[in-house]
Each structure stands twice: as C-alpha cells, then as structure tokens.
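Weekly sync notes, structure subgroup
Attendees: PM, AL, DS (notes)

Item 1: joint prediction request from the bench team. They want all two components modeled as one assembly rather than separately. Inputs as received:
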Amino acid sequence: MNHTDKNIVQYKPLPGDFAIWVFIFAELLVFGILFISYAFTRKYNLELFNHHQQFLDRETGAINTVLLITSSYFVVRAVDAIKKNMSQQSARWLALGLLCGAAFVVFKILEFNEKFSEGITLSTNIFYMFYLCLTGFHFMHVLLGMVILAFILVKTHRRKYNADDHDGVETGASYWHMVDLVWIILFPLVYIIR
Amino acid sequence: MTRFAITSSTKATLIWLLLVLLTLVTYGLGKIGYSGTFVITIVLASVLIKGHHIIADFMGLRGTEKKWRWLMQGWLLLIVAVIATAYRYS
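Output from the run, pasted for the record:
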C-alpha cells in the first residue's frame, strides 16, 4: 500500500489472475464446511474420535506440514526471483517447491497404504470417513497444485515470464499457498487436538 | 534513529522459520499427549499466526485492498473460532 498524497491510497492488486482467487475462495468455503462438520461431528462422537485419532501417524503429518511450508517458501522465492527478472533462478526455486510437493505425495501414499492395509475404509467408522475424505480431498489439491507448478516451471525455464509479465507464476503460487493454508488447519485438527 | 532494511527474501526466510517452529510446537504437544483447553488454545493460536503469515506474506495479500484481506483473514478467524467453540463445549 502506497500513500501517494494525503488522501489517495494506492493498494496492490491481488497477485496473479483474478479467476484463481474466485477458485481459491470457493475451495476455502468447501474446506471450511468440512472442518466445521468434523469439529461438530466429533463433539457428538467424542470417545470414538479420541480413540481412533491416536492411531494416526503424527510424525508423517508433522513432516508433511514442514514439507508444504517449505515448498510454499520456495515458491515465494520463485516469485521474488521472477520479479527481479531472474527466470533461471526462479525455475530452480519452483523445482525445489515441486520436489517438496512430491515428497508430500510419497509420504501421503505410504500413510494411505498403511491404513488401507489395515482394512480401513470410508465405511469403517465416522472418524475414518472424515479422515479419508479430508486428507484425500486435500491430497487431490496437492496433485493439481503440482501439475500447475510443473507447468509454470517449464514456462519459467523457457523464459516465458519476466519482471513485467509474471502473472502466471503468481497465479500458480497463490493456488499452491492455498493448499498449504488448508493443511495448516487440517493437520492439528485431525492429528493433534483432542 | 537507524532503521534496518530487511529484504523480501530475508523476511520470507524468517517467516518460514517461524512457521516451522510453530509446527514443531504443535507436533510436540501432540506427541506428549497433553490435551485440554490450554493445549487447544496454544495449537489454535499457532494456526492463527501461521495462517495470518501465509495469507499476508506468502500469498501476498499484505497491501491489497482491505476487502480481500478481510475475506481471507476473516475465513481463517471464523474457522478457528468455530473449531474452538466446538472443542470447548465437547
């Protein structure tokens, strides 16, 4: 925000394409409803939720949180670099961000595999229904975010973006940060607090 | 008075460190197995701090029009407040 004179305040525009923000707000609305549904369903099934929550892998959850936060940080650095016209450096930061996203996917698949091998499904009980729906829905967003990141990585590497034209990088970055923001709430809600 | 200029990349690094630190605190509380209002308050406060920085600094909403900041931060605050209420009365 810049104060150009006493009365006029200049605000920054939303980063990236406006359409992605409409998408982000819609996604946050859906996740918000799921989080609230989880919290109130737990209220009426307290023992069941507290009992089954202790069998979730908190270590993997914490590692995945650090991976997504770190990935978001790398993407911030990529946007910063492209604003300075450093496209190859920006591409490197995006590649690191993508790598962290891939590590998240690997850990999540291992976690899902463990649960499925124990015979846990959506119909096991209401706790696991929420656990699989919330983490599975978020997992699909991670995959979509990675496709977007890969796309802008290739374009950045080919020098299609620069300091004056980098809306595509900011658009992809905004979506990726939304994926991170949702996990920041999901992890303590499902894995930690009781 | 001397003011220290901080670059955007240094600021991003410091925020990343804060986010990782708060994640470790959240994990630690879960690992120890403590529960109750005090732990829930700390964990949800940590969610608010982390979410605020992701929205303002990582997503880049700091300095944008108030309506966008209120929409995003308001969403975060609302979700955390409703979760806190549900856990407080369970």
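Discussion: Chain A has one domain: 57-192.
Action: AL to compare against the crosslinking data before next sync.
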